[in-house]
Amino acid sequence: xGIISPRDGxxxxxxxFTCLVIILSPLLILxxxxxxLWGAILYLAIWLTFRKQxxxxxxxxxxxxxxxxxxxxxxRLGERAVILNWSERRNWKTSLPxxxxxxxxxxxxxxxxxxxxRPFRFAKTYRFFEAFKEFKHGDSRKVEKxxxxxxxxxxx
Length: 156
Known about the structure:
This protein is an alpha+beta fold and 156 residues long. It has helices spanning 11-50, 66-77, 96-104, 129-135, 141-154; strands at residues 54-59, 82-85, 113-117, 124-127. The protein has a domain at 51-154: Glutaredoxin (3-Layer(aba) Sandwich). The chain is 53% helix and 12% strand. Strands 2-1-3-4 form a 4-stranded mixed β-sheet, with helices on both faces.
């Protein structure tokens, strides 16, 4: 019992699986097309609005990184990036920075994150979550590495 698998089972279950794939494939293709179209429209909107590079930095009020980010990263970012606080996301209005974060930030290890989008290039993400797990235990090397990569791309 469980998930229908074409590898085991009777010819009837293989036929049912094949029928489901055939029936659902147009929906899957449509979903992929809409996702790609949305990404293309968002890139175009960002490129036309900002013309140069565009950066978003998202963090939260976690005691693991809040003090470090507010003293070491945010002051150096200055006007070069839009800053979003995940802990205050209820107050976020729909905007290009919020949409960029939601689209390019992903669903795992998305906080803290820096996202940089340059004209006619794909978004580059700088994920700090794993680095801060080590930072919490006294090893700051990975945080410094990700931070320096982000600052280098931003020209800081």
